[in-house]
Amino acid sequence: MAAMSNMTEILLLGFSRNDSVQKALCVVFLLMYTAVVLGNGFIVVTIVASKGLASPMYFFLSFLSLVELCYCSVTAPKFIFDSFIQRTVISLKGCITQIFFLHFFGGTEIFLLTVMAYDRYVAICKPLHYVTIMNRWTCGLLVGAAWGGGLLHSAGQTFLIFQLPFCGPSIIDHYFCDVHPVLKLACSDTFLTSLLIILNGGSISVVSFVVLLASYMVILCSLRSCTPAGRRKALSTCASHLAVVGLFFIPCSFVYMRPCVTLPVDKIVAVFYTVVTPLLNPVIYSFRNTEVKNAVHRLMRRSVIWEEK
């Protein structure tokens, strides 16, 4: 347990004190979470089961969908269950555990999005060397590095929180535990801890954003020499990736790249990067991608033939 803490449980206020509003939001979250599980799970199964989706881009996409499914699962199920039983309480250990996994999967997603930008850079700017550079070993190493980077980021954030003494009030005006709301429960001065937390999360976001920006600037410059058909295909793929990057980075940057203060709008912003982005990922990558749609159709035909047998 955290140092010198006399707290055992924390009350999460959620979105509203009104039980009817909270129950209505419970239903909304249940529907969205079900769509996240089905959509992202379907992408993972489709990519794993389809030989035509064996390229590095889809290899990374399968892990992105897996991470987003896990990321959403850190917060949504507990909110749904707590709203249903009308008891929005979490233990201090559970709160710190939620922070750990929230930042573990969130950090991993940031690194995976950066890796995917590098993959697009190699595919478009070095097409003749793409197969050699992005071989199985390299792809596995990059995915492993993304998970490792997420783990280091999360361990740093959690360690800083874990060392603080907590004495209350044991109430958080949020629907899940996160570093900024939890810092307000500490008994000691949190200025240095807040600064280190911002540096930890901010450095990852800034470095990743610079890499993403540099990759796409080079890509856009190189597209001038492509054929119109090749340019359209490359822009379509890059647009899908940039849409996911924007949906995730913008709200995350709003919350984590500022002084450790909580705002009423934080809960709404948090819904975007914890639920909405994982919900839209299958839509953005599947409905805009002909190869994924064709693979889905082949799987559906295969399942129909199997059932007829």
UniProtKB/TrEMBL annotation:
Keywords: Cell membrane, G-protein coupled receptor, Membrane, Olfaction, Receptor, Sensory transduction, Transducer, Transmembrane, Transmembrane helix. Pfam families: 7tm_4. Gene3D superfamilies: Rhodopsin 7-helix transmembrane proteins (1.20.1070.10). This is Olfactory receptor. Its main location: membrane. One of its GO terms (molecular function) is G protein-coupled receptor activity. Belongs to the G-protein coupled receptor 1 family. GO terms for cellular component: plasma membrane. It is found in: Cell membrane. It is a multi-pass membrane protein. The chain crosses the membrane at residues 24-49, 95-118, 191-222, 234-256, 268-287. InterPro entries: GPCR_Rhodpsn (IPR000276), GPCR_Rhodpsn_7TM (IPR017452), Olfact_rcpt (IPR000725), Olfactory_Receptors (IPR050427). Residues 39-285 form the G-protein coupled receptors family 1 profile domain. The lineage of its organism: Eukaryota, Metazoa, Chordata, Craniata, Vertebrata. SUPFAM superfamilies: Family A G protein-coupled receptor-like (SSF81321).
